[in-house]
Amino acid sequence: MSQARTGAWWRQAHNDLALADLARSNGFHAQACFFAAQAAEKALKGALLELGREPPHTHVLGQLVQILAAEGLDATELASLPLPALTRMTVTSRYPLDDTPPSELFDARDSEQALTTAQAVLAWVELLDQPSL
Fold it and tell me: Which CATH class for the 3-127 domain?
């Protein structure tokens, strides 16, 4: 697999996380949740690419973690994160599901949880590149 392609996914994950933080800092909590979810997704897909596996077309973070575990990685740390909540934010933070816009559904607590979860995912992926101690 192309190291350049893998690096592109990881750099985009960091870029999305930076935008999530900027959005949260400025009160755009729905957008912060969306970009935090995107950051986590892209980091996990970059990890799959690093393993030589083409990532599936999915936004379900738990599914990506299961694939990584099936590839032999210890994903226990990821399994303890609130990934289902972050996955749900991918859609609910973007589209009104009824008469309430997403901008009225998310608050600072939601965006903080989303960023914390995404940061943990990116930190886990970055550890994959570290030599074993």
Answer: mainly alpha
